[in-house]
Amino acid sequence: MLRPKKQTKPKIKHRPFLKWAGGKFRLTDDINKTFPKKKQCLIEPFVGAGAVFLNSNFERYILADINPDLINLFNIVKENVDDYIEACKPIFFAEEANSAGYYYAKRQQFNDSQDPFERSVLFLYLNRFGFNGLCRYNSKNEFNVPFGAYKTHYFPEDELRYFAHKAQNAVFLCGDFQQTFELADKNSVIYCDPPYAPLQQDSNFTGYAGNEFGLEHQRVLAELAKRAQKEKQIPVLISNHDTKFTRGIYKDAKLKRVKVQRSISQNSEKRIKVKELIAIF
User: Fold this and answer.
1) CATH number listed for the domain at residues 13-66+175-281
2) Which of these, 107, 156, 188, 260, could form a disulfide with 41 (CB 3.0-4.6 Å)?
């Protein structure tokens, strides 16, 4: 007698509470398949919105970024998510919240504020109502992403609560990738999601939290990854565009090719699949 196959529940994927240009939510399955099985600690020098953190299973996490606003926000959510959510709601649910005038007033308030909690609340509002999940600052270190003009909005309360729960096993640090690499030991695996190298090599840098992340930074990161694996036996994974340049700097790594939907456009017709690499050192 044939028995029906046991139905397995699909694995739940957890979205970050932040929108994030270049986020790895769609690629978490591919990335998880490349992680070594027995490492205890995941280190991310470019944590971004935290999609890989939220959808991986390590005992401990060291999560870093050069953006102090982002790390401040994560630490506040980790420490007291209830107070944070209650502080966000009046701004998100204000009658005029989805208007350009309100948005630009809140952006100015954010840029004028020195209070870490106030900045964390405004950062989430600007992220969800600004254009396409961009996080960008000008030369004066002022947040300058324009209004997003979306028809509908969503307050990510469930995502905030899950992040806070998962964050109890994480340490959030503000620092650059070179500093973060120094924290790794034999029980670690490092996953890097740097600002991507340009598809056309006639441009030399990508914005990196108000700093430049140029082609030389890409080379330094690749060299650090090679050295960490060779000298300390620490596995390192790096995501990037699939270009002649990246294949050159990752020539000592195993390369996994993936395709993912990418766009910095609200127009879905302009969202095309681009080729990316996961370099595995």
Assistant:
1) 3.40.50.150
2) 188
